[in-house]
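Supplementary Note 3. Input sequence used for the single-chain structure prediction.
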Amino acid sequence: MTPNEKADAVRSNFELIINELSKIIVRQELVIKHLFICLLCGGHALIEGVPGLGKTLIVRSLSKILDLAYSRIQFTPDLMPADILGTNIVKEDGKGNRYFEFYKGPIFGQLILADEINRASPKTQSALLEAMQEEKITVFGTEYTLEPPFMVLATQNPIEMEGTYPLPEAQIDRFFFKLKIGYPDHQALQEIIAKTTEDYQPDLKRVIGADSILAMKSLVKQVPIATHVKDHAIRLALASHPNNSNATDLIKEYVLLGASPRGVQSMIQAGKVSALIDGRYNVSIEDINDVAKPALRHRIALNIRGETEGVDVDHIVDEILSNEQPQ
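The predicted structure, written as C-alpha cells, is reproduced below.
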C-alpha cells in the first residue's frame, strides 16, 4: 500500500467507528475523535464533565466495537493499590501444599475506565503511574506486562471537590489529552431521550480489532512532519510560559507554569493522527492547532490569582493560537 492508501484506510476505520457509535452516542464526534487519537498515539485521556453526560457509555461502547477488553475502576477514598493492580493469594493443592498465586486486578484490561480518579488517595492514584507510562506493573518484585493496546481513560467531576484529592502535576502531565464534555443542547437531549427511554436497543458491532489498531499505531510514527510545523508546535508550548518573550499580558498575569515538553510531543503525535483521519500523509499547521487545546489545557498551571478569578485555561490557549503566527 502507498502512504496515501494507508492514510485512506485510517480515515475509513475512523468513519466506521463514528457511524457505529452514532447508534447510541449523541453528538460527541469530537470527543470520540480525540479518544481515537489517544489510542493510536499510545496515550491516555483525562475526561472532565459533570455526571450523566455519557462518559462511561462512550468508553464501554468504544471497547465493544474495537473488540478490546474493557475494565472499570470506581475510585473511592478507601480504594487500595492492590484493588487496582491485584495481589498474591494463598492457595492449597490437593496434597495440602500451600503456594502463592497472583490474582489480577482490573488494570489487566485494554480499555480502562478510571471513574472519578480524584476521589482516591494519592497512594492509590500513583498505582496507575507505572501502568500508564510503561504498560507494565510490578507486584512483589515481579513484572507483569499489560496487553496492548492499553489505554486509561480517567474521569473527574469539575464541580464537586469535597472529599477529593486533586491529581498532582506530575500525574496530570502523563495524560496525553484532557477532554471536556459539555452539556447537550435541546435537540441533542431529544435524541438522547429517544434512544434511552423508548424501545430502542442498538446492536453494536465490532468494526476493527487490536491487530488493526496496532498496525495503525505503527503507521503514525512513519508520518512525515515538516520542520516549520514542528517549530510551530514548539512555539505554541513556549508561548504558554510567563517568562517567555512571546508571552502575552494574560499569560504573564495568570499563569504560573507553562506546558512541559510532553505538550509538544502530544501536539506533534496527535497532529499526525489528525492528518491521517483527514486522509493525508502529511501534517499541517491546522492539524497542530486543532489538537492544541486537549494537549495543553491540563499542562498550563494557573497562579493563585488565576485560580481565584476562575480563569479558563482554554481562553489562554485560544490567545496563544491567535497570537502565534506560522513562520
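The first strand starts at residue 45 and ends at 48. The two ends are 33 Å apart (CA to CA).
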